[in-house]
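Researcher: I'd like a candidate sequence for this fold, 159 residues long. If you have to choose between options at a position, lean toward the conservative one.
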């Protein structure tokens, strides 16, 4: 899935034990036209190959999304990905997902339809609150821009 020019490309950092949660996040972001880096097959690589691969992936993406669970907190590769994201000045976001690891029977589809999870992905996908600054002379233009941004689903700080 290709990213739009406006949508950030996202690297999903997760423990291999949390693959269903990471897949659910990937699917929801891809539904919103984001380019998502997501890998679940690294076990077949040597540690050096994994390190080189993850370094390049983190460097390439706009930001890193951490699927935050106890499994992720205990993963050396997740710690490596976070450290590299910080090194490259990437934006870091986290979704607290421990509740999904406590119910091991939860499927990816059930996670994708969880309202709290969907809401979190939606907020990250839509972007952040926008403050529109303009001079009084530009009020007509700013009003049209504000209306267009709202139609596009962006949250604007009230003026």
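Model: Candidate sequence:
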């Amino acid at each position: 899935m290709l990213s739009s020019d406006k949508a950030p490309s996202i690297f999903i950092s997760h423990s291999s034990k949390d693959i269903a949660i990471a897949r659910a996040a990937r699917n929801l972001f891809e539904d919103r036209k984001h380019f998502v880096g997501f890998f679940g097959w690294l076990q077949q690589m040597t540690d050096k190959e994994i390190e080189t691969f993850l370094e390049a992936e983190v460097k390439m993406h706009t930001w890193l999304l951490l699927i935050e669970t106890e499994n992720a907190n205990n993963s050396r590769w997740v710690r490596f990905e976070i450290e590299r994201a910080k090194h490259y000045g990437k934006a870091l976001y986290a979704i607290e997902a421990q509740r999904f690891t406590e119910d091991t029977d939860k499927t990816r589809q059930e996670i994708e339809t969880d309202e709290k999870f969907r809401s979190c992905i939606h907020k990250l996908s839509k972007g952040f609150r926008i403050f529109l600054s303009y001079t009084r002379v530009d009020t007509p233009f700013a009003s049209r821009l504000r209306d267009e941004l709202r139609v596009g689903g962006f949250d604007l700080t009230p003026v």
